[in-house]
């Protein structure tokens, strides 16, 4: 089972939104909720490129330390895991199911997030470790390879439109989790409001 991280395992999207808004503001642009929605689920470099069309930002490698300072402070102080996802992952692990995380976040952010949430996975794939981020299938295919399983035997659990598209592109059964925000996840094989081990396993039947 391959979980997305931000918005699926942990409630980090609001924190990321606040960090982007605070870090971009000194460059004369107010990041909108529509901007954040347009960038949800895509890698850091593409979000930076999107916002660089609206504000004169430093290059991505120069901007990252500024964003990281703001974001990691919020993660350390306020990050909360989603109980349903944590419980489902624990139950699947207890059943002997192999688990992975595939996140659009850079490796540095992914490791910080998982550690702060008290989560540990044997296989993790970060957004800066594949050539093409979501909605391309690269990171899910990389996770399947590290799990030593064929894609058809891996279930993707995602909360974003690009993530669901990536799971489908990888030809993996895909479970969409509808958190509080309104996102069209109808392309997923099934959509739930609460993640459970049974809902995930049902996609392999």
Secondary structure elements and their pairing?
Elements (H helix, E strand, L loop, with lengths): L1 E2 L9 H12 L8 H7 L4 H9 L7 H19 L4 H12 L5 E3 L4 H11 L5 E3 L12 H10 L8 E3 L2 H9 L4 E4 L12 E3 L4 H5 L4
Parallel strand pairs: 1-2, 1-4, 2-3, 4-5, 5-6
Helix pairs in contact: 1-4, 4-6
Verbal overview:
The chain has 205 residues and is of the alpha/beta class. It has two domains: 2-11 and 79-204, Rossmann fold; 13-78, DNA polymerase, domain 1, CATH 1.10.150. Helices cover 46% and strands 9% of the residues. It has nine helices and six strands, in the order E-H-H-H-H-H-E-H-E-H-E-H-E-E-H. It has helices spanning 13-24, 33-39, 44-52, 60-78, 83-94, 107-117, 138-147, 161-169, 197-201; strands at 2-3, 100-102, 123-125, 156-158, 174-177, 190-192. A six-stranded parallel β-sheet has the order 3-2-1-4-5-6, covered by helices on one side. Helix 8 links the parallel strand 4 and strand 5 (174-177). The mean pLDDT is 96.
């Amino acid at each position: 089972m391959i979980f997305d991280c931000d918005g699926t395992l942990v409630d980090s999207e609001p924190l990321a939104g606040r960090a982007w808004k605070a870090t971009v503001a000194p460059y004369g642009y107010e990041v909108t909720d529509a901007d954040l929605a347009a960038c949800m689920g895509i890698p850091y470099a593409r979000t930076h490129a999107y916002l660089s069309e609206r504000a004169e930002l430093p290059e991505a490698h120069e901007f990252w330390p500024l964003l990281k300072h703001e974001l990691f402070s919020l993660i350390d102080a306020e990050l909360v895991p989603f109980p349903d996802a944590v419980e489902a992952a624990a139950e699947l692990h207890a059943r002997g199911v192999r688990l992975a995380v595939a996140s659009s976040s850079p490796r540095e952010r992914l490791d910080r997030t998982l550690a702060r949430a008290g989560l540990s996975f044997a296989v993790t794939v970060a957004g800066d470790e594949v050539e093409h981020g979501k909605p391309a299938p690269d990171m899910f295919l990389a996770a399947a390879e590290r799990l030593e399983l064929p894609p058809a035997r891996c279930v993707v659990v995602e909360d974003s439109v690009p993530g669901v598209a990536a799971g489908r592109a990888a030809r993996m059964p895909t479970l969409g989790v509808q958190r509080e925000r309104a996102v069209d996840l109808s392309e997923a094989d099934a959509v739930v409001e609460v993640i459970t081990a049974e809902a995930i396993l049902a996609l392999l039947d």
